């Protein structure tokens, strides 16, 4: 019993410590993302993407880079761009960039995994887009694309973007109120995933023995960094499976990715795990609702092959340049999380800033409420996730009581 209580306390402390480490980064990333989404509208994106395939891929990648990291927002925006005339490959480029190249994701990865993984994430995102582009040209699914467009024509278009230039809009309080509302919406979209992700990371750190990961990811652990091709390939294919089982979104996945790397999983396996937020069942179901099941499975196959190829290229590219970090350098356990350092002051500053944004958008200027289209979620799943998140809060509170008041 004492052993369980000790582990419970450590799990809760680790989960909250992880979140405390990342809080300012979440806030900074979502402020930047919210500003871009208010001042660079989706309609303007679609107009500049045009019909040229190469230009469309380049602009789709850029607009994805400056968009929200939420998978559900990315799916809805991708559908909208495709519906309004963007090519299929440009739409896929936008989808991949908005879930792998976004600013806030890079900041979180830098905190938990280091600069090598940030470089790997961004280079990998570009590789994902290029490999997907190549595969689309190879398979040339004209029939699927035509049917998907016809399916979307039946849905009404409710686009109503402000036509003022961003230079005019940035000077008005109304626009900044929209920024604050979008900032609140970003948190609303991810709070359940983040809660679950950080809680699972703490539980894994405290309760799951290294032997489990050594069984799941063959030849991992025990300081082993010399992996055969077969081992690397197994890690890359198992990584998406773990992501499928613990679907908690790209932002919530990063602490667990750091734990996997610290447990000895290969660089390629961890990268594949991070890339896997678009090859899970909720995304498959949403794409099927938009485009039909055949196109949904085609996108799933396309993205899975792309992430396998990108992970392999990254691993052996980094290996040849001696850039793969030492797993022992990624320390996410046994830390003193809550201390007076730069993290403390950054968190306080961003909490105060967040408080002002919430006041501006939700109390002072309630006349400019802005609704952002989201992909259709399963009501049952969302309700279940909400209750699971509340259970997580009870677990975390109980663990902190055990650690600091009962030991």
Task: Write up this protein.
The chain is mainly α and 407 residues long. The chain is 75% helix and 0% strand. Helix 1 (2-39) runs antiparallel to helix 6 and helix 15 (281-291) packs across helix 16 (293-320). The radius of gyration is 21 Å and the shape is globular.
Low-confidence blocks of residues:
157-161
Mean pLDDT across residues? 82
Structural class: mainly alpha
Describe the main β-sheet briefly.
none
Number of strands: 0
Q: Rough shape?
A: globular
Terminal CA distance: 13 Å
Number of helices: 18
Which strand-content bin applies to the residues? under 5%
Write down the secondary-structure element order: HHHHHHHHHHHHHHHHHH
Helix fraction by DSSP (H/I, runs of at least 4): over 70%
Radius of gyration: 21 Å
In terms of topology, how is this protein built?
Blueprint: H1 2-39, H2 42-49, H3 53-65, H4 71-83, H5 88-100, H6 103-112, H7 115-139, H8 142-153, H9 166-169, H10 173-207, H11 210-216, H12 229-245, H13 249-262, H14 267-275, H15 281-291, H16 293-320, H17 342-364, H18 379-405
From the structure above, extract its key features.
globular, 407 residues, mainly alpha, single chain, 18 helices
Give a summary of the structure in a few sentences.
The chain is an all-alpha fold. The protein has helices at residues 2-39, 42-49, 53-65, 71-83, 88-100, 103-112, 115-139, 142-153, 166-169, 173-207, 210-216, 229-245, 249-262, 267-275, 281-291, 293-320, 342-364, 379-405. The longest helix has 38 residues, at 2-39.
């Amino acid at each position: 019993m004492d052993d369980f209580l000790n582990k419970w306390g450590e799990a809760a402390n680790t989960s909250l410590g992880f979140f405390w480490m990342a809080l300012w980064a979440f806030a900074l990333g979502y402020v930047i993302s919210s500003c871009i989404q208010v001042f660079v509208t989706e309609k303007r994106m679609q107009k500049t993407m045009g019909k040229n395939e190469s230009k469309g891929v380049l602009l789709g990648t850029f607009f994805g880079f400056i968009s929200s990291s939420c998978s559900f927002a990315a799916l809805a925006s991708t559908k909208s761009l495709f519906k309004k005339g963007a090519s299929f490959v440009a739409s896929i480029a936008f989808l991949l960039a908005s879930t792998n190249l976004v600013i806030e994701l890079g900041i979180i990865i830098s905190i938990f995994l280091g600069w090598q993984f940030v470089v790997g994430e961004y280079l990998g995102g570009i590789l994902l887009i290029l490999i997907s582009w190549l595969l689309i040209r190879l398979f040339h699914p004209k029939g699927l694309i035509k049917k998907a467009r016809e399916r979307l024509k039946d849905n009404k278009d409710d686009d109503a973007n402000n036509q003022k230039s961003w230079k005019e809009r940035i000077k008005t309080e109304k626009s900044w109120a929209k920024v604050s509302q979008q900032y609140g919406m970003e948190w609303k979209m991810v709070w359940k995933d983040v809660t679950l992700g950080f809680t699972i990371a703490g539980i894994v750190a405290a309760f799951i023995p290294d032997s489990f990961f050594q069984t799941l990811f063959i030849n991992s652990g025990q300081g082993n960094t010399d992996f055969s091709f077969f081992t690397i390939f197994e890690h890359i294919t198992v990584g998406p499976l773990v992501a499928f089982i613990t679907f908690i979104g790209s932002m919530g996945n990063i602490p667990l990715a750091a734990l996997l790397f610290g447990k000895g999983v290969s660089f390629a396996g961890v990268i594949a795990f991070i890339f896997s937020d678009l090859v899970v069942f909720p995304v498959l179901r949403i794409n099927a609702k938009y485009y039909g099941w055949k196109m949904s499975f085609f996108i799933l196959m396309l993205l899975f092959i792309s992430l396998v190829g990108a992970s392999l290229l990254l691993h052996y590219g980094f290996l040849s340049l001696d850039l793969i970090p030492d797993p022992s350098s990624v320390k996410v356990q046994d830390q003193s999380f809550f201390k007076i350092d730069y993290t403390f002051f950054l968190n306080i500053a961003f909490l105060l800033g967040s408080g002002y944004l919430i006041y501006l958008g939700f109390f002072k200027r309630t006349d400019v409420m802005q609704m952002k289209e989201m992909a259709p979620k399963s009501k049952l799943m969302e309700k279940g996730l909400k209750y699971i998140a509340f259970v997580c809060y009870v677990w975390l509170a109980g663990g902190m009581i055990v650690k600091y008041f009962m030991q």
